[in-house]
Amino acid sequence: GAGVSQTPSNKVTEKGKYVELRCDPISGHTALYWYRQSLGQGPEFLIYFQGTGAADDSGLPNDRFFAVRPEGSVSTLKIQRTERGDSAVYLCASSPTGQLYNEQFFGPGTRLTVL
Amino acid sequence: AQKVTQAQTEISVVEKEDVTLDCVYETRDTTYYLFWYKQPPSGELVFLIRRNSFDEQNEISGRYSWNFQKSTSSFNFTITASQVVDSAVYFCALKGSGNTGKLIFGQGTTLQVKP
Predict the structure, then answer these.
(1) A6 touches chain B (CB under 8 A)
(2) What distance in Å separates residue A43's CA from the closest CA in chain B?
(3) How far apart are CA B38 and CA B44, in angstroms?
(4) What is the pLDDT of residues A50-91, one digit of tens each?
(5) Which residues in B6-108 belong to E strands, given as ranges?
(6) CA pair distance A11, A34, nearest whole angstrom
(7) Which helix (H) or strand (E) holds A54?
(8) How high is the pLDDT of residue B114?
(9) Which chain B positions have a beta carbon within 8 Å of A100's beta carbon?
(10) What pLDDT was estimated at residue B98?
(11) pLDDT tens-digit profile of B51-92?
């Protein structure tokens, strides 16, 4: 079956602009995660959805970052007033449930470049 | 606090050599899971293995083997008879029962296998 998909694959924007990044999880997966990966680093957790609700948003760096998952499937990560420091690869992952033992399946990521 | 440390930033070996990637973790949870992911040059994280805190049996899968030792809080990964296709960044990750299922990643080890 289809894996996790993310669009766009690349996004270049100017400082101060607003961007939206989209994630399509594996069909039927109730848990969805967003991570951010800077060059040479491991992925860092941003937010976790169980169904439609954000169960843990403790990783969002500040209030410029917001994410939604209105129907419990597709999720959108929104970044307002982008800054150069937001440049990174944004990864989305899904798992069948939020249970501890479930591995997470990752998408190819969206590379965000803020000029 | 939970933490994963991969002290080896980069490793370079010649094809057919064996190589071990180290992973040390910190957690106060009694129930937790450890994971290894591979990130090839294409960028997509690929799940390799999951281990729970109550199962210290070592595991072998083809040329891959994993050594989990709770006494030293380590979960090391060995590739036997390495191949050029093994070249990638490898991440060790921790998921503790005290959090909401997010993965805590190490910094990653870049493995280069030369022909």
Answers:
(1) no
(2) 6
(3) 8
(4) 999 998 999 999 999 999 999 999 999 999 999 999 999 999
(5) 10-14, 19-21, 24-26, 32-39, 46-52, 59-61, 64-69, 74-79, 88-96, 104-105
(6) 17
(7) strand A53-56
(8) 97
(9) 31-33, 52, 95, 97, 101
(10) 67
(11) 999 988 888 889 999 999 999 999 999 999 999 999 999 999
Average pLDDT over residues A20-28: 97
Residue burial A43-64, b: 16+ Cβ < 10 Å; e: rest: bbbbbbbbeeebbbbebbeeee
Cβ burial of B71 (10 Å; 0-12, 13-18, 19+) is: exposed
SS3 content of chain A, % helix, strand, coil (to 5): 5, 50, 50
Q: Residues of B at the A interface (Cβ-Cβ below 8 Å)?
A: 4, 31-33, 35, 37, 42-47, 50, 52, 91, 93, 95, 97, 99-108
Does pLDDT of A8 surpass 70? yes
DSSP conformational letter for B63: T
